[in-house]
Write a structure and sequence with these properties.
The complex is a heterodimer of chains A (365) and B (165).
Chain A lengths: L1 H40 L12 E2 L8 E3 L35 H8 L3 H12 L6 E2 L3 E3 L3 E3 L4 E7 L3 H14 L3 E3 L3 E4 L8 E4 L10 E4 L3 E3 L3 E8 L11 H11 L2 H13 L13 E4 L2 E4 L3 E2 L18 H9 L4 H20 L10 H8 L3
Parallel strand pairs in A: 1-4, 2-5, 6-12
Antiparallel strand pairs in A: 3-15, 4-14, 6-13, 7-11, 8-9, 10-12, 13-14
Helix pairs in contact in A: 3-8, 3-9, 4-8, 5-6, 8-9
Chain B lengths: L2 H11 L3 H22 L12 H25 L4 H20 L7 H8 L3 H13 L1 H33 L1
Helix pairs in contact in B: 1-7, 2-3, 2-4, 3-4, 3-7, 4-7, 5-6
The chains are: A alpha+beta (365), B mainly alpha (165).
Chain lengths: 365, 165
Protein backbone atom coordinates (compact mmCIF):
# COMPACT_ATOMS: atom_id res chain seq x y z
CA UNK A 1 0.00 0.00 0.00
CA UNK A 2 2.76 2.33 1.03
CA UNK A 3 4.69 1.48 -2.14
CA UNK A 4 1.60 2.08 -4.29
CA UNK A 5 1.09 5.51 -2.71
CA UNK A 6 4.76 6.27 -3.27
CA UNK A 7 4.54 5.07 -6.87
CA UNK A 8 1.47 7.18 -7.51
CA UNK A 9 3.21 10.17 -5.96
CA UNK A 10 6.20 9.68 -8.24
CA UNK A 11 3.92 9.30 -11.26
CA UNK A 12 2.06 12.52 -10.45
CA UNK A 13 5.33 14.32 -9.97
CA UNK A 14 6.62 12.95 -13.27
CA UNK A 15 3.42 13.97 -15.04
CA UNK A 16 3.52 17.55 -13.80
CA UNK A 17 7.23 17.76 -14.48
CA UNK A 18 6.59 16.55 -18.00
CA UNK A 19 4.11 19.35 -18.58
CA UNK A 20 6.57 21.89 -17.23
CA UNK A 21 9.22 20.42 -19.51
CA UNK A 22 7.16 20.81 -22.63
CA UNK A 23 6.26 24.38 -21.74
CA UNK A 24 9.93 25.16 -21.06
CA UNK A 25 10.92 23.49 -24.31
CA UNK A 26 8.34 25.52 -26.20
CA UNK A 27 9.62 28.72 -24.59
CA UNK A 28 13.19 27.82 -25.50
CA UNK A 29 12.23 27.09 -29.11
CA UNK A 30 10.34 30.38 -29.38
CA UNK A 31 13.27 32.23 -27.79
CA UNK A 32 15.71 30.68 -30.25
CA UNK A 33 13.41 31.55 -33.14
CA UNK A 34 13.08 35.15 -31.97
CA UNK A 35 16.84 35.35 -31.44
CA UNK A 36 17.45 34.00 -34.93
CA UNK A 37 15.02 36.52 -36.36
CA UNK A 38 16.70 39.36 -34.49
CA UNK A 39 20.10 38.22 -35.72
CA UNK A 40 18.90 38.10 -39.30
CA UNK A 41 17.10 41.44 -39.33
CA UNK A 42 19.73 43.51 -37.57
CA UNK A 43 22.90 44.04 -39.58
CA UNK A 44 25.96 43.85 -37.34
CA UNK A 45 28.04 46.64 -38.91
CA UNK A 46 27.30 49.61 -41.08
CA UNK A 47 28.08 48.90 -44.70
CA UNK A 48 31.26 50.47 -45.87
CA UNK A 49 30.84 53.62 -47.94
CA UNK A 50 27.69 52.63 -49.68
CA UNK A 51 24.90 55.09 -50.17
CA UNK A 52 23.14 54.21 -46.98
CA UNK A 53 21.26 57.43 -46.73
CA UNK A 54 17.54 57.09 -46.43
CA UNK A 55 15.01 59.84 -46.49
CA UNK A 56 13.06 60.27 -43.31
CA UNK A 57 9.39 61.11 -43.88
CA UNK A 58 9.85 64.87 -44.20
CA UNK A 59 6.16 65.58 -43.77
CA UNK A 60 6.36 64.46 -40.16
CA UNK A 61 9.50 66.38 -39.30
CA UNK A 62 9.72 70.08 -38.61
CA UNK A 63 13.00 71.95 -38.68
CA UNK A 64 14.01 74.68 -36.27
CA UNK A 65 15.03 78.24 -37.15
CA UNK A 66 15.92 80.20 -34.05
CA UNK A 67 18.08 83.02 -32.77
CA UNK A 68 20.14 82.15 -29.73
CA UNK A 69 23.53 82.48 -28.12
CA UNK A 70 25.47 79.26 -27.75
CA UNK A 71 26.95 78.05 -24.47
CA UNK A 72 30.59 78.69 -23.67
CA UNK A 73 31.48 76.37 -20.80
CA UNK A 74 34.10 76.98 -18.09
CA UNK A 75 37.71 76.03 -18.85
CA UNK A 76 38.13 74.32 -15.52
CA UNK A 77 35.96 72.38 -13.07
CA UNK A 78 37.12 72.43 -9.44
CA UNK A 79 35.14 69.24 -8.78
CA UNK A 80 36.86 67.44 -11.67
CA UNK A 81 40.49 68.53 -11.69
CA UNK A 82 43.17 67.46 -14.09
CA UNK A 83 44.78 64.19 -12.95
CA UNK A 84 48.52 64.45 -13.45
CA UNK A 85 49.77 61.15 -12.11
CA UNK A 86 50.78 58.47 -14.59
CA UNK A 87 48.39 55.54 -14.47
CA UNK A 88 48.36 52.16 -16.22
CA UNK A 89 46.55 51.71 -19.51
CA UNK A 90 43.09 50.31 -19.05
CA UNK A 91 42.67 52.15 -15.75
CA UNK A 92 44.12 55.42 -16.89
CA UNK A 93 42.88 58.94 -16.39
CA UNK A 94 46.22 60.69 -16.82
CA UNK A 95 45.69 64.28 -17.99
CA UNK A 96 41.90 63.98 -18.01
CA UNK A 97 40.34 67.45 -18.50
CA UNK A 98 43.69 68.94 -19.50
CA UNK A 99 43.32 71.52 -22.28
CA UNK A 100 45.15 70.77 -25.53
CA UNK A 101 48.21 72.94 -25.86
CA UNK A 102 48.62 75.15 -28.92
CA UNK A 103 50.60 72.53 -30.86
CA UNK A 104 48.01 69.86 -30.16
CA UNK A 105 45.16 72.19 -31.15
CA UNK A 106 46.98 73.03 -34.33
CA UNK A 107 47.11 69.35 -35.34
CA UNK A 108 43.31 69.36 -35.37
CA UNK A 109 42.63 72.91 -36.57
CA UNK A 110 45.32 73.06 -39.23
CA UNK A 111 45.32 69.52 -40.59
CA UNK A 112 46.10 69.79 -44.32
CA UNK A 113 43.23 69.26 -46.74
CA UNK A 114 45.50 66.85 -48.58
CA UNK A 115 45.13 64.36 -45.71
CA UNK A 116 41.37 64.46 -46.10
CA UNK A 117 41.70 63.96 -49.84
CA UNK A 118 44.07 61.00 -49.49
CA UNK A 119 41.88 59.33 -46.91
CA UNK A 120 38.83 59.92 -49.08
CA UNK A 121 40.52 58.28 -52.04
CA UNK A 122 41.54 55.33 -49.86
CA UNK A 123 37.96 55.05 -48.69
CA UNK A 124 36.60 55.11 -52.22
CA UNK A 125 39.07 52.54 -53.52
CA UNK A 126 38.47 50.36 -50.45
CA UNK A 127 41.98 50.61 -49.06
CA UNK A 128 40.71 51.41 -45.56
CA UNK A 129 40.69 48.21 -43.49
CA UNK A 130 38.58 49.50 -40.63
CA UNK A 131 34.85 49.87 -40.98
CA UNK A 132 33.85 53.31 -42.23
CA UNK A 133 30.26 53.93 -43.15
CA UNK A 134 27.17 55.59 -41.81
CA UNK A 135 23.46 55.01 -41.82
CA UNK A 136 22.34 58.56 -42.39
CA UNK A 137 18.84 59.96 -42.61
CA UNK A 138 18.01 63.22 -44.33
CA UNK A 139 16.28 65.55 -41.91
CA UNK A 140 15.42 69.25 -41.75
CA UNK A 141 18.36 71.32 -40.59
CA UNK A 142 18.48 72.79 -37.11
CA UNK A 143 19.16 76.42 -37.91
CA UNK A 144 20.50 78.81 -35.30
CA UNK A 145 21.39 82.40 -36.16
CA UNK A 146 20.96 81.64 -39.84
CA UNK A 147 23.42 78.73 -39.88
CA UNK A 148 22.76 74.97 -39.94
CA UNK A 149 24.04 73.04 -36.97
CA UNK A 150 26.09 70.03 -36.11
CA UNK A 151 24.53 68.49 -33.00
CA UNK A 152 26.32 65.89 -30.91
CA UNK A 153 24.61 63.90 -28.16
CA UNK A 154 26.87 61.38 -26.49
CA UNK A 155 28.30 60.20 -23.22
CA UNK A 156 31.78 60.63 -21.81
CA UNK A 157 31.55 56.98 -20.73
CA UNK A 158 30.73 55.68 -24.20
CA UNK A 159 33.27 53.76 -26.29
CA UNK A 160 31.91 54.63 -29.74
CA UNK A 161 31.51 58.31 -28.86
CA UNK A 162 35.09 58.40 -27.66
CA UNK A 163 36.74 56.70 -30.61
CA UNK A 164 34.69 58.76 -33.08
CA UNK A 165 35.34 62.18 -31.54
CA UNK A 166 38.76 62.36 -33.22
CA UNK A 167 37.08 62.09 -36.63
CA UNK A 168 34.37 64.53 -35.58
CA UNK A 169 36.92 67.12 -34.45
CA UNK A 170 38.85 66.77 -37.72
CA UNK A 171 35.63 67.20 -39.71
CA UNK A 172 34.56 70.28 -37.75
CA UNK A 173 38.02 71.79 -38.22
CA UNK A 174 37.26 72.13 -41.98
CA UNK A 175 34.51 74.63 -41.31
CA UNK A 176 35.90 76.55 -38.34
CA UNK A 177 38.30 76.08 -35.47
CA UNK A 178 38.51 75.10 -31.84
CA UNK A 179 39.96 77.58 -29.38
CA UNK A 180 40.04 74.80 -26.80
CA UNK A 181 39.71 71.03 -26.65
CA UNK A 182 40.32 68.78 -23.67
CA UNK A 183 41.85 65.38 -23.11
CA UNK A 184 39.42 62.75 -21.96
CA UNK A 185 38.78 59.03 -21.69
CA UNK A 186 35.88 56.68 -22.15
CA UNK A 187 34.87 54.73 -19.07
CA UNK A 188 37.06 51.94 -17.74
CA UNK A 189 34.35 49.43 -18.60
CA UNK A 190 34.16 50.79 -22.16
CA UNK A 191 37.77 50.56 -23.17
CA UNK A 192 39.35 53.51 -21.31
CA UNK A 193 39.99 55.04 -24.74
CA UNK A 194 41.89 58.33 -25.02
CA UNK A 195 39.49 60.83 -26.52
CA UNK A 196 38.52 64.47 -26.78
CA UNK A 197 36.16 66.27 -24.48
CA UNK A 198 34.49 69.32 -26.00
CA UNK A 199 34.50 70.90 -22.52
CA UNK A 200 35.85 69.80 -19.14
CA UNK A 201 33.70 66.93 -17.90
CA UNK A 202 32.35 66.07 -14.48
CA UNK A 203 33.94 62.64 -14.63
CA UNK A 204 33.02 61.78 -11.02
CA UNK A 205 29.37 62.71 -11.02
CA UNK A 206 26.18 61.13 -12.24
CA UNK A 207 22.99 62.81 -13.35
CA UNK A 208 24.74 65.71 -15.06
CA UNK A 209 25.46 66.73 -18.66
CA UNK A 210 28.12 68.91 -20.20
CA UNK A 211 26.77 71.55 -22.57
CA UNK A 212 28.79 73.74 -24.89
CA UNK A 213 32.24 73.92 -26.45
CA UNK A 214 34.89 76.25 -27.80
CA UNK A 215 34.13 75.94 -31.51
CA UNK A 216 33.76 78.90 -33.86
CA UNK A 217 32.63 78.83 -37.47
CA UNK A 218 31.12 81.08 -40.11
CA UNK A 219 29.38 78.14 -41.75
CA UNK A 220 27.84 76.02 -39.00
CA UNK A 221 27.02 75.89 -35.31
CA UNK A 222 28.33 73.10 -33.10
CA UNK A 223 25.91 72.13 -30.34
CA UNK A 224 27.42 69.51 -28.04
CA UNK A 225 25.79 67.59 -25.22
CA UNK A 226 27.95 65.07 -23.37
CA UNK A 227 26.21 62.99 -20.74
CA UNK A 228 28.30 62.59 -17.61
CA UNK A 229 28.65 59.60 -15.33
CA UNK A 230 31.48 58.18 -13.22
CA UNK A 231 34.29 57.46 -15.64
CA UNK A 232 35.75 54.65 -13.52
CA UNK A 233 32.70 52.42 -14.01
CA UNK A 234 31.09 51.24 -17.25
CA UNK A 235 28.95 52.80 -19.91
CA UNK A 236 26.08 54.75 -18.44
CA UNK A 237 23.51 57.15 -19.81
CA UNK A 238 21.24 59.31 -17.71
CA UNK A 239 17.53 58.78 -18.32
CA UNK A 240 16.28 60.90 -21.18
CA UNK A 241 14.01 63.01 -18.92
CA UNK A 242 17.09 63.87 -16.86
CA UNK A 243 18.99 64.99 -19.98
CA UNK A 244 15.98 67.08 -21.02
CA UNK A 245 15.71 68.64 -17.58
CA UNK A 246 19.43 69.44 -17.56
CA UNK A 247 19.11 71.07 -20.98
CA UNK A 248 16.15 73.13 -19.87
CA UNK A 249 18.03 74.18 -16.76
CA UNK A 250 20.69 75.87 -18.93
CA UNK A 251 18.14 78.46 -19.99
CA UNK A 252 19.74 78.39 -23.43
CA UNK A 253 17.23 78.22 -26.26
CA UNK A 254 19.58 76.51 -28.74
CA UNK A 255 20.30 73.66 -26.35
CA UNK A 256 16.76 73.33 -25.08
CA UNK A 257 15.44 73.12 -28.64
CA UNK A 258 18.24 70.81 -29.81
CA UNK A 259 17.36 68.28 -27.13
CA UNK A 260 13.68 68.66 -27.93
CA UNK A 261 14.44 68.20 -31.64
CA UNK A 262 16.16 64.87 -30.90
CA UNK A 263 13.82 63.41 -28.30
CA UNK A 264 10.47 64.84 -29.31
CA UNK A 265 10.66 65.37 -33.07
CA UNK A 266 13.20 63.01 -34.60
CA UNK A 267 12.36 60.21 -32.17
CA UNK A 268 8.83 60.01 -33.57
CA UNK A 269 10.26 58.13 -36.54
CA UNK A 270 11.85 54.75 -35.99
CA UNK A 271 14.63 55.52 -38.51
CA UNK A 272 15.70 58.75 -36.82
CA UNK A 273 14.79 57.92 -33.24
CA UNK A 274 17.42 58.10 -30.53
CA UNK A 275 18.64 54.55 -29.94
CA UNK A 276 21.93 55.15 -28.22
CA UNK A 277 25.07 57.18 -28.34
CA UNK A 278 26.65 58.81 -30.24
CA UNK A 279 23.74 60.50 -31.94
CA UNK A 280 24.74 63.27 -34.30
CA UNK A 281 23.19 65.62 -36.81
CA UNK A 282 25.39 67.11 -39.53
CA UNK A 283 23.32 69.80 -41.19
CA UNK A 284 20.66 67.85 -43.05
CA UNK A 285 21.96 64.43 -42.02
CA UNK A 286 21.11 62.53 -38.88
CA UNK A 287 23.54 59.74 -38.05
CA UNK A 288 22.86 57.07 -35.46
CA UNK A 289 26.11 55.69 -34.08
CA UNK A 290 29.69 56.32 -35.07
CA UNK A 291 30.53 56.62 -38.77
CA UNK A 292 33.76 54.69 -38.30
CA UNK A 293 35.08 52.08 -35.91
CA UNK A 294 38.70 53.03 -35.37
CA UNK A 295 40.36 51.24 -32.48
CA UNK A 296 43.66 50.38 -34.15
CA UNK A 297 45.08 49.42 -37.51
CA UNK A 298 42.38 46.83 -38.11
CA UNK A 299 39.08 45.74 -36.63
CA UNK A 300 39.79 44.05 -33.29
CA UNK A 301 38.90 40.38 -32.96
CA UNK A 302 39.18 40.18 -29.22
CA UNK A 303 38.10 42.19 -26.29
CA UNK A 304 41.10 44.50 -26.03
CA UNK A 305 41.77 47.46 -28.28
CA UNK A 306 45.10 48.98 -29.37
CA UNK A 307 43.68 52.45 -28.82
CA UNK A 308 43.36 51.70 -25.08
CA UNK A 309 47.16 51.51 -24.93
CA UNK A 310 47.78 54.84 -26.64
CA UNK A 311 48.30 58.21 -25.10
CA UNK A 312 46.68 61.36 -26.45
CA UNK A 313 50.10 62.47 -27.62
CA UNK A 314 50.54 59.27 -29.62
CA UNK A 315 47.12 59.67 -31.27
CA UNK A 316 47.85 63.28 -32.15
CA UNK A 317 51.29 62.37 -33.46
CA UNK A 318 49.69 59.89 -35.85
CA UNK A 319 47.09 62.42 -36.96
CA UNK A 320 49.86 64.96 -37.59
CA UNK A 321 51.69 62.51 -39.87
CA UNK A 322 49.26 59.82 -40.95
CA UNK A 323 50.96 56.70 -42.23
CA UNK A 324 48.91 53.83 -40.89
CA UNK A 325 45.37 52.53 -41.05
CA UNK A 326 44.42 54.02 -37.69
CA UNK A 327 45.25 57.57 -38.75
CA UNK A 328 43.81 57.28 -42.26
CA UNK A 329 40.59 55.85 -40.82
CA UNK A 330 40.22 58.95 -38.66
CA UNK A 331 40.48 61.16 -41.72
CA UNK A 332 38.16 58.88 -43.68
CA UNK A 333 35.55 59.04 -40.94
CA UNK A 334 35.97 62.82 -40.94
CA UNK A 335 35.45 62.86 -44.72
CA UNK A 336 31.96 61.39 -44.41
CA UNK A 337 30.96 64.08 -41.94
CA UNK A 338 32.58 66.74 -44.12
CA UNK A 339 30.57 65.53 -47.12
CA UNK A 340 27.34 65.74 -45.11
CA UNK A 341 28.07 69.31 -44.05
CA UNK A 342 29.17 70.33 -47.54
CA UNK A 343 25.93 68.99 -48.93
CA UNK A 344 24.02 70.93 -46.29
CA UNK A 345 25.75 74.28 -46.93
CA UNK A 346 25.69 74.11 -50.74
CA UNK A 347 29.45 73.43 -50.89
CA UNK A 348 30.38 76.94 -49.84
CA UNK A 349 33.46 75.93 -47.82
CA UNK A 350 36.88 75.38 -49.49
CA UNK A 351 37.06 71.74 -48.33
CA UNK A 352 33.97 71.02 -50.40
CA UNK A 353 36.00 71.38 -53.60
CA UNK A 354 38.10 68.32 -52.78
CA UNK A 355 37.39 65.65 -55.40
CA UNK A 356 37.00 62.88 -52.80
CA UNK A 357 34.44 64.93 -50.88
CA UNK A 358 32.51 65.60 -54.06
CA UNK A 359 32.55 61.87 -54.83
CA UNK A 360 31.25 61.06 -51.36
CA UNK A 361 28.47 63.58 -51.80
CA UNK A 362 27.46 61.82 -55.01
CA UNK A 363 27.23 58.59 -53.03
CA UNK A 364 24.52 60.15 -50.97
CA UNK A 365 26.34 61.84 -48.13
CA UNK B 1 19.72 14.95 1.14
CA UNK B 2 23.42 14.63 1.81
CA UNK B 3 25.45 16.75 -0.57
CA UNK B 4 27.76 13.84 -1.28
CA UNK B 5 24.97 11.95 -3.08
CA UNK B 6 24.44 14.81 -5.52
CA UNK B 7 28.19 15.03 -6.02
CA UNK B 8 28.45 11.29 -6.51
CA UNK B 9 25.82 11.43 -9.26
CA UNK B 10 27.72 14.31 -10.85
CA UNK B 11 30.96 12.36 -10.64
CA UNK B 12 29.27 9.33 -12.16
CA UNK B 13 28.06 11.39 -15.10
CA UNK B 14 31.45 12.92 -15.79
CA UNK B 15 33.26 9.59 -15.62
CA UNK B 16 31.69 8.79 -18.95
CA UNK B 17 33.57 10.04 -22.05
CA UNK B 18 30.24 10.46 -23.82
CA UNK B 19 28.99 12.96 -21.28
CA UNK B 20 32.32 14.74 -21.12
CA UNK B 21 32.04 15.15 -24.89
CA UNK B 22 28.48 16.39 -24.45
CA UNK B 23 29.63 19.01 -21.98
CA UNK B 24 32.43 20.17 -24.27
CA UNK B 25 30.11 20.35 -27.27
CA UNK B 26 27.53 22.19 -25.19
CA UNK B 27 30.11 24.68 -23.97
CA UNK B 28 31.31 25.32 -27.52
CA UNK B 29 27.76 25.84 -28.76
CA UNK B 30 26.85 28.12 -25.89
CA UNK B 31 29.99 30.19 -26.30
CA UNK B 32 29.23 30.56 -30.02
CA UNK B 33 25.68 31.70 -29.24
CA UNK B 34 26.97 34.17 -26.72
CA UNK B 35 29.68 35.40 -29.13
CA UNK B 36 27.17 35.97 -31.93
CA UNK B 37 25.00 38.09 -29.72
CA UNK B 38 27.87 40.03 -28.17
CA UNK B 39 29.24 40.81 -31.63
CA UNK B 40 26.15 42.79 -32.45
CA UNK B 41 27.78 45.84 -30.99
CA UNK B 42 28.71 47.15 -34.43
CA UNK B 43 30.60 43.95 -35.16
CA UNK B 44 32.89 44.24 -32.17
CA UNK B 45 33.19 41.50 -29.61
CA UNK B 46 32.71 44.13 -26.97
CA UNK B 47 32.27 42.37 -23.65
CA UNK B 48 31.76 44.84 -20.86
CA UNK B 49 31.77 42.30 -18.07
CA UNK B 50 34.81 40.37 -16.80
CA UNK B 51 35.53 37.43 -19.11
CA UNK B 52 35.67 34.98 -16.21
CA UNK B 53 31.94 35.58 -15.67
CA UNK B 54 31.33 34.63 -19.28
CA UNK B 55 33.38 31.45 -18.90
CA UNK B 56 31.46 30.53 -15.73
CA UNK B 57 28.16 31.18 -17.51
CA UNK B 58 29.11 28.95 -20.42
CA UNK B 59 30.54 26.23 -18.17
CA UNK B 60 27.55 26.07 -15.83
CA UNK B 61 25.20 26.07 -18.79
CA UNK B 62 27.08 23.19 -20.38
CA UNK B 63 27.10 21.15 -17.15
CA UNK B 64 23.37 21.77 -16.70
CA UNK B 65 22.77 20.62 -20.25
CA UNK B 66 24.88 17.49 -19.71
CA UNK B 67 23.07 16.50 -16.51
CA UNK B 68 19.79 17.00 -18.34
CA UNK B 69 20.87 14.84 -21.25
CA UNK B 70 21.97 12.14 -18.78
CA UNK B 71 18.60 12.29 -17.03
CA UNK B 72 16.73 11.90 -20.30
CA UNK B 73 18.99 9.16 -21.65
CA UNK B 74 19.51 7.09 -18.47
CA UNK B 75 16.14 7.37 -16.83
CA UNK B 76 13.85 8.63 -19.59
CA UNK B 77 13.20 11.58 -17.27
CA UNK B 78 11.48 13.99 -19.61
CA UNK B 79 11.39 16.54 -16.78
CA UNK B 80 15.08 17.07 -17.42
CA UNK B 81 14.15 18.60 -20.77
CA UNK B 82 13.02 21.68 -18.89
CA UNK B 83 16.43 22.26 -17.38
CA UNK B 84 18.14 21.67 -20.74
CA UNK B 85 15.88 24.31 -22.27
CA UNK B 86 16.65 26.85 -19.57
CA UNK B 87 20.38 26.18 -19.89
CA UNK B 88 20.09 27.14 -23.57
CA UNK B 89 18.43 30.42 -22.70
CA UNK B 90 21.09 31.64 -20.26
CA UNK B 91 23.91 32.22 -22.83
CA UNK B 92 21.42 33.92 -25.17
CA UNK B 93 20.29 36.24 -22.41
CA UNK B 94 23.92 36.68 -21.37
CA UNK B 95 24.86 37.74 -24.89
CA UNK B 96 21.98 40.19 -25.01
CA UNK B 97 22.98 41.63 -21.65
CA UNK B 98 26.61 42.23 -22.59
CA UNK B 99 25.68 43.63 -26.01
CA UNK B 100 23.88 46.53 -24.40
CA UNK B 101 25.89 49.67 -24.35
CA UNK B 102 26.40 52.86 -26.20
CA UNK B 103 26.66 51.28 -29.61
CA UNK B 104 24.01 49.99 -31.97
CA UNK B 105 22.93 47.30 -29.62
CA UNK B 106 20.71 44.45 -30.63
CA UNK B 107 18.24 44.98 -27.84
CA UNK B 108 17.20 48.60 -28.48
CA UNK B 109 16.01 48.15 -32.07
CA UNK B 110 14.32 44.92 -31.04
CA UNK B 111 12.42 46.70 -28.27
CA UNK B 112 11.38 49.39 -30.73
CA UNK B 113 10.01 46.66 -32.99
CA UNK B 114 8.03 45.30 -30.07
CA UNK B 115 6.31 48.65 -29.63
CA UNK B 116 8.39 50.34 -26.95
CA UNK B 117 9.05 54.00 -27.67
CA UNK B 118 12.58 55.40 -27.88
CA UNK B 119 12.63 56.59 -24.26
CA UNK B 120 11.55 53.22 -22.94
CA UNK B 121 13.83 51.17 -25.19
CA UNK B 122 16.91 53.23 -24.39
CA UNK B 123 16.06 53.24 -20.68
CA UNK B 124 15.80 49.45 -20.63
CA UNK B 125 18.97 48.99 -22.66
CA UNK B 126 20.91 51.43 -20.50
CA UNK B 127 19.69 49.84 -17.28
CA UNK B 128 20.82 46.44 -18.50
CA UNK B 129 24.21 47.89 -19.45
CA UNK B 130 24.54 49.46 -16.01
CA UNK B 131 23.86 46.21 -14.15
CA UNK B 132 25.32 43.79 -16.68
CA UNK B 133 27.80 42.10 -14.32
CA UNK B 134 25.06 41.52 -11.74
CA UNK B 135 22.74 40.13 -14.40
CA UNK B 136 25.35 37.71 -15.72
CA UNK B 137 26.08 36.62 -12.13
CA UNK B 138 22.35 36.01 -11.66
CA UNK B 139 22.31 33.83 -14.77
CA UNK B 140 25.22 31.79 -13.38
CA UNK B 141 23.31 31.34 -10.11
CA UNK B 142 20.27 30.19 -12.07
CA UNK B 143 22.40 27.54 -13.77
CA UNK B 144 23.83 26.41 -10.42
CA UNK B 145 20.36 26.16 -8.90
CA UNK B 146 19.21 24.15 -11.90
CA UNK B 147 22.12 21.77 -11.43
CA UNK B 148 21.19 21.37 -7.75
CA UNK B 149 17.56 20.66 -8.66
CA UNK B 150 18.48 18.26 -11.44
CA UNK B 151 20.80 16.21 -9.26
CA UNK B 152 18.22 16.08 -6.46
CA UNK B 153 15.57 14.95 -8.87
CA UNK B 154 17.82 12.24 -10.26
CA UNK B 155 18.73 11.07 -6.77
CA UNK B 156 15.06 10.82 -5.75
CA UNK B 157 14.17 8.94 -8.90
CA UNK B 158 17.11 6.62 -8.42
CA UNK B 159 16.10 5.85 -4.82
CA UNK B 160 12.56 5.20 -5.93
CA UNK B 161 13.74 2.66 -8.49
CA UNK B 162 16.07 0.98 -5.99
CA UNK B 163 13.32 0.62 -3.38
CA UNK B 164 11.21 -1.31 -5.90
CA UNK B 165 14.03 -3.81 -6.16
Amino acid sequence: MEETREERKLEREESSNRKISYVALAIAVVALAVAALALVTKPAVPTQVQATTTVAPAAKLVGYNIQSNLITPPMYLPSAPVITQQQPFGHRLTNINQPFNSTELSIINNAPNSYFETAGEMLLNKSIKNVVGARANIVPAFIVNGKPSVIYLGSITCLFCSENKWAMALALSRFGNFSALFKGYSSFGDGDLPTIYWAPANYNSSGTDSFGNFYHSNYINFISIDDEDPITQGFNLNPIPVIEANANATGNLAYEDAVSYIFNDLSKNSSTSFQGTPYTIWGNYQVGGADAIDLGNSMPTGNSFPLTNMTHEQVLSQLANPNDQFAWTEYAGADLYVAMVCSSINNTAPVCTLPAIQQLEKLGY
Amino acid sequence: MPKSQRLSILAKIFKSPAYIATAIAGAAAYYLLFYLFAKFNAGLFLVTVPMYLIYFLVATGAITLTIGVYGVAAYRRSSQIATCSVSTLTPIVGGLVVSCGCGSALLTPFLLTLGFNALQAVAISTAIARYNSLLVTALIIINLLLMYYQLGSLRRFNEGKESKG
